[in-house]
Amino acid sequence: MTDASSQTRLDKKDDDKEKPEAGAMVAQQLFESRTVLIFGEISQKVAKEVVAQLIALDAKNADPIRLIICSQGGHVEAGDTIHDMIRFIKAPVKMIGTGWVASAGAHIFLGAKKENRYCLPNTRFLLHQPMGGVGGPAADIAIEANEIIKMRLRINEIIARETGQDVDKVAKDTDRNFWMTAEEAKEYGLVNHIVATADKVK
Fold this sequence. Notes:
By secondary structure, the chain is of the alpha/beta class. It has helices at 4-32, 44-60, 76-88, 104-109, 138-163, 167-173, 182-188; strands spanning 35-39, 65-71, 93-102, 117-119, 124-127, 178-180, 193-194. Strands 1, 2, 3, 4, 5, 6 and 7 form a seven-stranded mixed β-sheet that branches. α5 packs across α6 (167-173). The longest helix is centred in the N-terminal third of the chain and has 29 residues, at 4-32.
């Protein structure tokens, strides 16, 4: 016979076993459905995980991959890595924005071809110039400032190319935080389809 405290410990052990099993089951279901999730801040760790999933799915076959993103942005180069990998693999990526798609998250969003860019109705988008906090010797500050200027120009050119906007207009728009609703993002050329249900993602 087990007392109440022993039974509680046994129940907790069972719960601890179920949690990783449940996580593994969800991960397997996502892989089988060819779905990749990006939620939260974009970091090198996130980039590594997402790229690994994209490569694994692409190696399996060239069927479309769904990438669902809700992100406030983050590390620019990590965003570059995911953006470029979306274009590098053979399998087409159906990009689905939800919640908010901001900064480096918006850059990743633009990695998909325009016809493959979707968002849910309440998604908000944010474009802005790269942030940079630099310190140290004056020469190093000058080098970093120059790199930020080049990065800003590069990203503005990508936004212009992928939205059909004039690069000067993009530069002006991104000089400060430039928020867009789903409808505004569609009008701007960022989004191609606003969808409310999964069956609308073709």
